[in-house]
Every structure is written in C-alpha cells, then in structure tokens.
Amino acid sequence: MPKLTIDGRPLEVPPGTNLIEAARRLGIEIPHYCYHPALSIAGQCRLCVVDIEKVPRPQVACNTVVAEGMVVHTETERVLETRKSIMEFHLINHPLDCPVCDQAGECWLQIYYMKHGLYDPRMVDEKVHKPKAVPLGPHVILDAERCILCSRCVRFCDEVTGTSELGIFHRGDRSEIGLFPGQELANKYSGNVVDICPVGALTDRDFRFQVRVWYLDTQKSICPGCARGCNIEVHVSRRRVHHAEGRRVVRLKPRFNEAVNKWWICDAGRYGSAFVDGDTRLQAPARRDGEKTLEVAWTEMIPLAAGRLRGYRADEIGILASPKLSNEDLFLLRRLCDALGVGAVDYRVPPARPGDEDDFLIRADKNANTRGAELVGLGGADSRAILAAARERRVKCLWIFCHDLLASAWPEGEVLDGLLGAETVIFQGTNANPTSAYAHLVLPAAAYPEREGTWTNFEGRVQRFRQALPPLGRALPDWEILGRLLQEVQGAPRPARAEDCFRDLAATVPAFAGMSYRSIGDAGQLVQTARP
Amino acid sequence: MKPVQRVYLREVASGLVLTARHFFVNMGRHLAHALGRTEARGAVTIQYPEERRPYAPRLRSLHRLVRREDGSPRCVACMMCETVCPAHCIYIVAGEHPNPDIEKVCTEFTIDLGKCVFCGYCVEACPEDAIRMDTGILEFSSYSRGGMIYTKETLLSLEPAGPDGKPRSPVPIPADRTP
Fold it and tell me: Are the CB atoms for B156 and B67 separated by under 8 Å?
C-alpha cells in the first residue's frame, strides 16, 4: 500500500485511492464540487487543487491517485490563492439570489465562499441570464442560473440510474443543464439529484419555499417504505409551526450506509412521509359505542382493552400483527400472546397489487420488518384462516395492527363479513383507514419519527430508527401500548424504554443474541442467521 | 449634616417657595398666552395629541412593508427577519410569485406587535429593503392581544412619515375595535 504524507501527516491507503479520499481519512477536507465518491471523476470544478512536491503546478486532488512517497500540501499560499480565484470564476454568472433560494443555508457555494473565497467582486459585466424555475419532472425543479456545471446530476442519471435524461447544452458561459428533447426527469430515483447538487440549481418541488433549512432539526432514521430499510435522516420543523403548512416532517434525506443504500433513496420513500402529519392520524384512544365514538383516556382504555382480551377464551381471539411494527413491538406482542395463550396470530396480509421492484433499492415487499416478524417467531397461524374464523363466529375478538384489510388482495365481502362477524374489533395503528372504521376499540400508535425502535431488513440487518418528534396527540409507541397491556394482563413491570424491550428480545430470541442498541449503532447489525 | 438641616423646617420652606414660584410664574404666562400674548409660553411640554414633538429621523416606529411599483410587496419571504427576530414575533408564509425573475413572495406576513421589542433587527436584516420602521406611528394600543396582530395587508397600506416626522397614514384600527 502506498505511503504518502498529507500536510505533514503520514498515511497509508490502498492503491488507487484519490487524494480527496486519502485526505478525508486524516480528517482533512479538500473543498470540491464535482467530485462524488459514487460517480465517475469529471475534474470540472477545479476547486480541489492541492500542491504536490516535485510537481510544478497545483493538481486536482480528485483525479490524482496516491503514489508511494507523495508529499501533498493542501493549505499552501498558492493553493489558497487558486481556490479563491476558482471560487471567483464559479460565481461570475451566479445570480446571488440566496434570499429566494431553497439551498441557502446548506449551499456549498455559500460555505466555500465563506471559507475559501471572501474576495471583493471584480465583475462589471452583466451576468448571463438563463431559465429559472423550470420543472424537470414531478419532483425536481431547475434554476439554470445558479448551476455551476459540476455535472454531478448528469453523471448520476448516466451512471447510477442509467436513464440519461440530463445533459449540458450550449457552449462557454452560456452552457446550461437541461433535459434531452422529449425527456422528463421522472425516474424512480430522481430526487437524489437534489441531494448531490452542491448548489441551488436543482431543488425539490415538494420542499420548495416550505421551510428555511436552518429551522430544521434532523434525526437518524430508517425508511419504512419497503423491506430494504434505506438509512435516512428525518428533517423536522418544530420551531415555526406556520411553516410548511403545519407539517412537522418536511423532508427525508438519504443517510450513507455502505451496506444498504449507499448515498441514495428512491422517490417513493423520499416523498412517502406525508402520512405522519396526515389528516387521518389517530390522535386519541377511542371506543365505539353503537353509532357514537367516544374518546377515552389511556388509563381507561388499557383496562378496557385488557378486559376484552381476557373476557374471551384464548381460541376466540385472533391477532393480525403487522410487518410494519418494530422488533420490540413484535416481541412484546409475542409475550402478550404467550400470556393470553393466543395461538391465532399472523402478520401476513397480501397487498391488492404486488409492489414494484427493481434490482437497485426498491423491494416488492412494502413492509419494513417482515424479516423481523419472521425471526421474532410471531405467527404460525394463517391470517386468512383467522379472518375466516371471525366470519364463522369462532374468533370473537379480532385485533388488527395497521393493516387496511379492505385494501388487501382478499375479496372485500369476505373481509367485511369477518369484521362484522367479530364481537370486538380492536384496531391499533397510526392512521385511520376503512378497516379502522369497523373497530370497537381504537388504539392510536406513534408513527416511526415519533418513537424509537429497530427494524430488520430483508437481508437480516437490524437497524435503529430514532425519535425526532413527540407523538401526535395522545398517540403512544406500539411497544408502550403493548407493555401497558401486558402489565394489565400479567402484572409484569412494563418496559420504560424501547431499549428495554430490545434487551429482552436479544436475551430470548437466538437470532438477536448478543445485540444491543449500542452494537447496532448507526450502520445496523446482521442477525445471527444472516451472518456469514 | 448640619443641625439646622436636620430640623428640615428650613428646607421644607425653601421647597415650598420654589414650587409656589413656578406655579405663579407659569400661571401668569399661561394667562398672558390665553389673552393674546402668543410669545409668552408656559412650562407645559407639548399639547399632545394636537401638537407633536418632532421625532428623530431614525426613530423606530410602527413597521410597514415596502411595495413594488405594481403594489405587490418587495418581500421575497427569505425569512431573514423572522430568523433574526429576538422576540419571534414575525410569521411569514412563502409562496410562488407569478414573475419567475422574482420567484418568491410572502403570501402572509404577520407581525405580533404584542411581542415585538422594536429592536429594528428586521429592518437591518432585510436584503430587499422590504420592511421599514419609518411610519412615525406610535399609537397602536389595543384592548386585546388579537388587536396587536398586524397582517400583510395592513402593513402594506402604511406610508412613511412625512419630512416633519408626522405620520402620513392613519393609525391602523385594530381588529378588536370599531372606528
């Protein structure tokens, strides 16, 4: 492995590493725009220049591969001067419309100008004007004036999605990013060009003018959209409630995880957070009494629900758990089933239409934790048979988690008969749906950004999502609801935190043995059976 | 303290004499003024509200939103003022401007004057010179908190104070009061 020195610090890196990546290992940041570790090297922005001893001129760090004995300086006077001049070139035709630009606050032009620019503008000519606010597709909007032509978006569409919608047109300072004729930036991963755009040229139509980025708080999370479990960051607006039409979760951004999603997420996941602040959110425990729906307190609801569950024989209860629940929830549900002696438990409800799938990130299974439900050992019964038993009045208490059975692959009449056949239908979930309208008891659950937990993705990788917000209304995390019910049924002390549930899970279920929130960390950890 | 001062009587008497002298001298001047000698001025400061003291040109009075030539607000909803405001009393909602060169405009711009501390940071922070505190209006009391909330339309309707510092717009009538 080549040994080199960067800013006087020795370092050994694998051959083929470029200088930006090598310097990053030492915690030295070489400023750059066009370089992205996932894309080919363009060498267009020229900002990443460094001085290399025995080389007469500054070299671009992105396209210089480490060599044995190389001595690199990233902060010499000549490098700083070059950076400053290059920043000046980048900003010649930039409109400086930061007040109206959604990127302001997370813009690399702003950051590098403050760090490496700070020159007095010398440009006296009229700036070149280009198209502004041009929608490129359903999710992305282009401002060609702000573009610095780094070509990251073009390379993304060429190399990652392979759809090649974007190109650079015209010559010289009239060059601009645009769509090829007849094309639309409508691939399933189009939102990623907004993330990789270092400036405000490509911005999100969904996020446009919603919130200024400095009002956002971020929290590490996992996308609940499919079995892949892409690592994401949830961006929430909590300080100014009149922004973003009152939405709290205003956008999702991918979070790097080498083993799962690298730098990317799909558009379905990125724009799939609306349910968290949707109108259908269940906010208070409710009891249906004939035609009336009465809101009740949790202190009343828990004994009520536990009383109903205890009031039936074990074989009169059917539970349709959800593969959207976390490992912690499913484990507590398993304990509750053991305590009640219920055997008719399943989590599999087939969707009406099979989910779309591709060979990149999107999985056909649109549930985040199907693998976790398998591993926790819930189920054994057949969900359709449970519904059939309800129809035949053998199952009198039906407890449904999250599912909208009326939107499943099962015939509507069959589902309706089952729902109407059960004496007690308990619904537990985040949002109301046609199925929850038939519930006698409604237990409102906290959505994933409102709670802690872990999901197991299709590969068996257990990944943590964290709490970014307080639960809406009086909703509670599923593990908390189940813990309170377990306490009511069994008298066992209830877990104080999701971590306590996970500790019990790791101690009980062999697949999770030896795991803890700490060992899972930010990158996730494979379950025992999936480990090589 | 001298023993004679400790008795206070002499000090009380001299104080009374001073007060009485001001009273009678000013009464004489006011009587003379009322009888037509206009150059005689009593010791009253200013006959507010008929008369107003000249305000300093940099006085921070009620805010107003500056308009473009077409009457739309200059504000581009960049949220600088909302961000810098130490009292968090500015509430802006952004929207799309029909002109793509302007791009962004405030669809709502509300100031809660009940919270405002009149620091003037919003004026300092504004990159578009869209908000000023130069109306010369200081009388915007209200009977309720709701009456202290000023919307975009009210703020846009205000004019800057004249060269004499007098407000040129009428004092906005709070929502909780009928004219």
Answer: yes
Give me A273's structure tokens.
């957070």
- The CA–CA distances, whole Å, from A362 to A265, A365, B171 equal 9, 9, 61
Q: Rounded to a whole number, what is the distance in Å from the CA of B74 to chain A's nearest CA? A: 12
Looking at the DSSP assignment, which residues form a beta bridge with residue A425? A398
**Of the candidates A205, A207, A197, the residue with the CA atom closest to the CA atom of residue A135:** A205
Asked if A243's CB is within 8 angstroms of B95's CB, the reply is no
SS3 labels along A325-344: CCHHHHHHHHHHHHHHCCCC
- The alpha carbon of A364 is separated from its chain's Cα centroid by a whole number of angstroms, namely 17
Domain-wise residue ranges, chain A: 3-90, 92-209, 286-530
Residues 223-252 of A with CB under 8 A from B: 240, 242-243
The widest CA-to-CA distance across chain A, in whole angstroms, is: 87
Q: From A133, which residue of chain B is nearest by alpha-carbon distance?
A: B100
CATH code reported for the domain at A286-530: 3.40.50.740
Q: Are A206 and A245 in contact (CB under 8 A)?
A: no
Structural fold of domain A92-209: Alpha-Beta Plaits (3.30.70)
Res B172: pLDDT: 81
Tell me the average pLDDT of chain B: 88
- A interface mutation test: which of B85, B93, B105, B109 has the most A CBs within 10 A? B93
Give me the long-range contacts of A485-492 (CB less than 8 A, separation at least 24).
A485/A302, A485/A305, A485/A306, A485/A309, A485/A336, A486/A332, A486/A335, A486/A336, A486/A339, A488/A302, A488/A303, A488/A306, A489/A306, A489/A309, A489/A310, A489/A336, A489/A339, A489/A340, A490/A339
Question: What is the total residue count of chain B?
Answer: 179
Q: Are A391 and A417 in contact (CB under 8 A)?
A: yes
Provide the CB-side half-sphere exposure for A397 (13 A, CA): 18
Q: Which fold has domain B64-157?
A: Alpha-Beta Plaits (3.30.70)
pLDDT single digits (tens) A96-108? 999 999 999 999 9
Listed in order, strand segments (DSSP E) in A469-527 are 525-526
Which DSSP category does A106 fall into?
S
Pairwise CA distance, residues B71 & B156, whole Å: 9
Q: Which CATH class is domain A3-90?
A: alpha beta
- Rounded CA-CA distance A179/A197 in Å is 16
Mutual orientation of helices A478-490 and A498-508 as an angle, nearest 10°? 70
Give tens-digit pLDDT for A32-48. 999 999 999 999 999 99
CA distance A433 to A405: 9
Q: Using CB atoms, which residue from A99, A133, A240 is nearest to B80? A: A99
Annotated domain spans of chain B = 3-34, 64-157
| Average pLDDT of span A377-393 | 89
Residue A260 near residue A229, CB atoms below 8 Å: yes
Rounded Cα distance between B131 and A202, Å, is 30
Which of A96, A97, A98, A100 best probes binding to B when mutated, by most B CB atoms within 10 angstroms? A100
Taking CB atoms and an 8 Å cutoff, what residues of chain B touch A214?
Answer: 83
- Buried b / exposed e over B55-83, threshold 16 CB at 10 Å, is beeebebbbbbbeeeeebbbbbbbbbbbb
User: Would you give the distance in Å from CA A246 to the centre of its chain?
Assistant: 20
CA-based end-to-end distance of chain B: 60
- In this prediction the pTM is 0.89
What percent of the residues of chain A are helix, what percent strand, and what percent coil, each to the nearest 5?
A: 30, 20, 50
**CB A243 to CB B127 under 8 A?**
no
* A202 phi and psi angles, rounded to 5 deg: -110, 120
Q: Band of the pLDDT at A381, cuts 50, 70, 90?
A: confident
Sheet (strand A9-12) strand order: A9-12, A3-6, A71-73, A49-52, A59-60
